[in-house]
Amino acid sequence: MPKVLGGSLEAHRREVRARVFEVLRAQLYERGFDAITLAGVAAEAGLGRTALYNHFPDKESLLVAFVEDEAARYVDRLRAAVEAETDPIAQLATFVRLQLRVLAEHHLPPGGALESALAPAAYRRISAHADPITGQLRAVLLAGVDAGSWPAQDVDVVVPMITAALGTRQVIDVPAERLAGVIEAAVRFVLQAVGSSELPDPRPI
């Protein structure tokens, strides 16, 4: 019988997932999704292939589980950061900064490449995690209208435009020393796009 990590089956499951996700995160950065194999992930995580297959039957299911885990933690982080601000302008600036910082830190394939790598059902599962994020953006935009921070606007049009602008890696594929300045330029762009006449002071995220 395989060794149970952590003293219980549930703790074992969490430990296996944590190990595997840590390895997958590094391999996505170093090699890209296409070059990753379950056998390679298992070996680097110190697991037998059979043990890994018991949790993730194929590479696609592993990627979906990884993205779901990352997304859930990110949504909590985003909500806490935005809600720590009381002014809608600062909230929108925080949203933009965090979206771009996380995009710069993570190395999943961009949307189009990810869509082509996964079956439609799996891609829809991953895409569904954008809903809480766009919901947060929608709430910030509506709060800004109520507060008079920017003019009334059709958020059904504005939200996808902002998320599209913040979702392209071209924005943050710059030398590390330029990243902070690029992010602040994006903050100014988004605030001006929604009609804000005020710009918050730059702050780290």
TrEMBL record:
Q: Which UniProt keywords apply?
A: DNA-binding, Transcription, Transcription regulation
Please tell me whether the keyword DNA-binding is annotated for this protein: yes
Could you tell me which Gene3D superfamilies the record lists for this protein?
Tetracycline Repressor, domain 2
Does this UniProt record's set of keywords contain Endoplasmic reticulum?
Answer: no
- Which PROSITE patterns does this chain map to? HTH_TETR_1 (PS01081), HTH_TETR_2 (PS50977)
Q: At which residues is the DNA-binding region annotated? A: 37-56
GO MF assignments: DNA-binding transcription factor activity; transcription cis-regulatory region binding
Name of the protein in question: TetR/AcrR family transcriptional regulator
Q: Give the source species.
A: Amycolatopsis carbonis
Taxonomy, top ranks, is:
Bacteria, Bacillati, Actinomycetota, Actinomycetes, Pseudonocardiales
